């Protein structure tokens, strides 16, 4: 396993933070795949939404907290859960939380995450 110190200061530029997050995600993914053999989730998309399926055996729906912030969806189990779960998935576009839904059946959490389409703020300018 590879460990690297992480120094976070206010003087870091956003580009360095993005690089740091990418580096951390890469090594977490490598370590997780090596330990378990699979990630336990799948992601598919169509033109209007993403469908994220996560294997969560032994966790009830009242033991899960799901939060959406911008383009990130976070899944976390409560203290009462027998199995501890904490995961975050970052998608390329923002998520429309009002049009999204979640179901938990047979230990599989399925999130239907609606894409929030970017709105154009173009204002026509008259030529004089």
From TrEMBL:
Organism: Pseudorhodoferax aquiterrae
UniProt similarity note: Belongs to the small heat shock protein (HSP20) family.
Domain SHSP: 32-128
Gene3D superfamilies referenced in this protein's UniProt entry, alphabetically: 2.60.40.790
Record-linked PROSITE patterns: SHSP
SUPFAM superfamilies (UniProt xref): HSP20-like chaperones (SSF49764)
Listed Pfam families: HSP20 (PF00011)
Higher taxonomy: Bacteria, Pseudomonadati, Pseudomonadota, Betaproteobacteria, Burkholderiales
Name of the featured protein: SHSP domain-containing protein
Superkingdom of this protein's organism: Bacteria
Transmembrane segments: none
């Amino acid at each position: 396993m590879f460990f690297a110190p992480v120094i976070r200061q206010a003087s870091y530029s956003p580009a360095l933070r993005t690089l740091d997050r990418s580096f951390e995600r890469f090594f977490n993914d490598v370590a997780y795949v090596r330990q378990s053999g699979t990630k336990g989730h799948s992601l598919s998309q169509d033109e209007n939404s993403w469908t994220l399926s996560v294997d969560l055996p032994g966790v009830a729906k009242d033991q899960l907290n799901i939060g959406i912030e911008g383009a990130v969806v976070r899944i976390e189990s409560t203290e009462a859960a027998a199995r501890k779960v904490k995961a975050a998935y970052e998608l390329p576009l923002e998520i429309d939380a009002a049009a999204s839904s979640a179901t938990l059946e047979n230990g599989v959490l399925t999130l239907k995450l609606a894409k929030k389409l970017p709105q154009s703020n173009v204002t026509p300018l008259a030529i004089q």
